[in-house]
User: Which sequence fits this backbone?
């Protein structure tokens, strides 16, 4: 069993437990459920194009940065021009929680991406209830039919959809209904990074689909290369989070690249 399979197995167990404790109606009664979300489609065009991530740890890297707070980092990202903030909410493998989004939602005015492993309709009501604006769907753990159904539900709830793919086979998960096609430079099964593979895959996307390069962007050179190849957005986390002060790292990065 690879790491993705382990994560999905654990996630299904977690969701089943959450559903038994907190009914959907309770999620609908939450503070943020009725709010109108911010649009990543708009901020990708008007700001840097970078979806800057808050991430404490990962299965491949272990602890990345567990010293800084989500609010400190997210505020710095916004102040320096991030188009959105991505927040890991998986606890078991990434050290995240819903509180990481709840602690920043009322303090920043850019979209928040809930980055997690979405396998059940219940999770989309969770995402809306904690103030997320965008959700991530991972083609590697969903069928095309599930992507279609989850996208419809997301839009019904006012959430935008970033669909992540990594292989040519997963192109079949893409439809005109999704808001963005994310191409993961890192293979989720073995964690190898290949930027050229992502560029090749981007060139096979349907015309008109907004594209986001995800993960494995470790330098200004990587960023510029992917931007030159036509990506509309860039999901970056580890490059900033491994620094003692992720906000300062992001600010320096922005000042050194041509947006």
Assistant:
């Amino acid at each position: 069993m690879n790491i993705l399979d382990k994560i999905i197995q654990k996630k299904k167990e977690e969701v089943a437990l959450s559903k038994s404790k907190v009914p959907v109606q309770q999620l609908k009664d939450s503070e943020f459920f009725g709010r109108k979300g911010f649009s990543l489609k708009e901020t990708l065009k008007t700001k840097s194009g970078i979806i800057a991530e808050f991430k404490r740890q990962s299965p491949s890297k272990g602890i990345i940065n567990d010293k800084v707070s989500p609010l400190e980092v997210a505020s710095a990202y916004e102040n320096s021009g991030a188009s959105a903030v991505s927040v890991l909410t998986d606890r078991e493998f990434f050290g995240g929680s819903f509180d990481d989004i709840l602690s920043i939602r009322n303090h920043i005015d850019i979209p928040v991406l809930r980055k997690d492993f979405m396998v059940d309709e219940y999770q989309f009501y969770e995402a809306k209830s904690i103030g997320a604006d965008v959700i991530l769907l991972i083609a590697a753990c969903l069928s095309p039919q599930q992507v279609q159904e989850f996208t419809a539900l997301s839009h019904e709830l006012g959430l935008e959809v970033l669909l992540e793919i990594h292989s040519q086979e997963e192109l079949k998960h893409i439809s005109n209904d999704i808001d963005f096609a994310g191409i993961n430079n890192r293979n989720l099964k073995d964690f190898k990074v290949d930027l050229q593979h992502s560029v090749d895959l981007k060139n096979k996307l349907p015309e008109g689909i907004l594209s986001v390069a995800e993960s494995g962007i470790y330098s200004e050179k990587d960023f510029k290369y992917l931007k030159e190849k036509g990506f509309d957005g860039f999901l970056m986390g580890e490059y900033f989070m491994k620094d003692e002060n992720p906000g300062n790292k992001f600010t320096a990065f922005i000042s050194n690249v041509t947006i």
The chain has a mean pLDDT of 95.
